[in-house]
Amino acid sequence: MIYGKIWCVVKPSVGIPIIIGAVAVASFSVHLALTINTTWVKGFLNGGAGKVAAISNETTPQVAVLTVQDVRK
Amino acid sequence: MHVIQGVDAMSDKDKVWPTGLTEAESEEIHRHLIQGTQIFGMIAALAHLLAYVYSPWLH
């Protein structure tokens, strides 16, 4: 197997955490960048709730008006 | 005589290297590492496929 003898000169207790850590940091960075730099991730994670709330605010007709009468007259 | 002993030492499969492993042990660890990487890669590919299908990503 190619590079199979690397663990003769690199301690596995050092090399393997470095490899796994590098993969973890790279993966986390990419996903964090996606979350920060796009708008659809937040909407997607809100699921249907966010969509319903947004629609109901725009399309629900007004059914009542609250008025406060001035009783000091 | 010394050269012959040196050659024998170089090709000795039971030689313990500075990390405390023999070549066979090193290759065994590497085999498991490669297998783990392949399994991780397959799970990651599946996860990205699901994300592509069910999220707005790349649409």
Question: Nutshell version of this structure?
Answer:
The complex is a heterodimer of chains A (73) and B (59). Chain A has helices spanning 12-37, 40-59.
Q: SSE layout and pairings?
A:
The complex is a heterodimer of chains A (73) and B (59).
Chain A: H1 12-37, H2 40-59
Chain B: H1 2-10, H2 23-54
**Class derived from helix and strand content of chain A:** mainly alpha
Q: Write down how many β-strands of chain A occur, each being a DSSP E stretch of 2 or more residues.
A: 0
Mean pLDDT of chain B: 87
Number of discrete domains of chain A: 1
Helix content estimate of chain A: 55-70%
The sequence of SSEs of chain B as H and E is HH
- In terms of DSSP E residues, the strand content of chain A is under 5%
SSE string of chain A: HH
Instruction: Output the radius of gyration of chain A.
Output: 28 Å
DSSP strand count of chain B? 0
Low-confidence runs of at least 5 consecutive residues of chain B: none
Subunit organisation of the chains = heterodimer
Alpha-beta classification of chain B = mainly alpha
Q: How would you describe the overall organization of this protein?
A:
The complex is a heterodimer of chains A (73) and B (59). Chain A has one domain (4-59). Chain A is an all-alpha fold. Chain A has helices at residues 12-37, 40-59. Chain A is rod-shaped, with a radius of gyration of 28 Å. Chain B is mainly α and 59 residues long. Helix content of chain B is 69%, strand content 0%. Chain B is built from two helices and no strands. The chains are: A mainly alpha (73), B mainly alpha (59). The interface between A and B is medium-sized, with 18 and 19 residues.
